[in-house]
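Worked example (supplementary).
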Amino acid sequence: MNIDTLEKSFILMGTGMAVLFLFMGLLIAVVHFGIKLLQKLPQKTQ
Amino acid sequence: MLNSILAFFGEGLAAIGWQQLLMYGIGIALIWVSIAKDYEPMLLLPIGFGAILVNLPLEVVWQHDGAAGAIKILFDAGILTEVFPLLIFIGVGAMIDFGPLFQRPWLMLFGAAAHLGIFVTISLAVALGFSLEEAACIGVIGAADGPTTIFITTKLAKDLLGPIMVVAYSYMSLVPIIQPPVIKALTSKNERLIRMQAVDHDIPRVIFIIFPIAVTIICSLLVPIAAPLIGFLMFGNLVRESGVLAKLSSTAQNELSNIVTLLLGISVGGSMRAESFLRPETLLIMALGLFAFIFNTAGGVLFAKFINLFLKKKINPMLGACGISAFPMSSRVIQKMALKDDPSNIILMHAVSANVSGQLGSVVAGGLVLALIPILIGG
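After joint prediction of all chains, the assembly is encoded as:
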């Protein structure tokens, strides 16, 4: 077992999971606020 | 003259060893499970036949007299160039309905949590002696996403393509067998009985158009190397949701997907030559692939249990297991489990929401692996 490579795999795990959650968080924000904004738009134009 | 004729007919027979015979057995077994058990027949049948074809005497379909054979031409043109997985992604994108996910966007978190198994498996594979590139390809099996697995393996460890693809598609078809015991081991009956509230908001149609474009841009900003994967997937989805390309959407979902799947299967089978498949590593890859599947399921379930600690209205932790990319199989499995404990507990739409986010998550996880490994190795 190569300890140096194992250490790199842990860095990959930490970074990978963090970016995955960040990506999903951004998508949740886009959908959530996108829907809210689009639902308000017609009311403003009336 | 007679001797030459006899030698000609004997040449094929002499070229067969126990390895080739074993590969015929593996090919026949794959064809059998695809027909008799209905396990991923669209891929396992062509892969099984391809495995037989490529191990026939003198490997004529691979290479003969210095010229590339038919399967090698398909393999080089469709897999090494990554064209086949990307074309399949157009079809997959055209099949995805993000509607249920827009009703409950918070379920996208499971699309991230249920990919923990990929990274845990990478560490385990490294501990078992695989290089970081090989370990990454093995870990990605857990995402249950065939095209992404091909894409990553072609770039990082071409030699492992045969065993990794067979393992990936075999386990994908075994989702209904692999997931339930893992979920049962991690949840109590009371947790599995939790009901999910039905939601039915009006979703503006334009959000269906904006979403694939936004996903492509956000993903490519975070992980530029994943742009081809996410781009083709979301292009297929945009074609579907545009509402003006019904024929193209139908073609992507049916004819395009079917033709490419056919060619992909037989090309992957072509990579199962005895000398590259019959290695001790293949058995290890099988074990690690199963571990990745189990740990991805566990990651999703445990994450759901973790967020339940902070919620007044608890969520059914089985939904976490749907964060993998095996769509719609995983959501069906979870709904079936919910109905088994309570015949009136309908959680299918929540499960579908988590499941489609798993499809996005697997692409991003694959892209992250591709982007980070060269940096880690270089550093």
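Two points are worth noting when inspecting this output. The longest strand of chain B covers residues 63-64. The longest helix of chain B spans residues 348-378.
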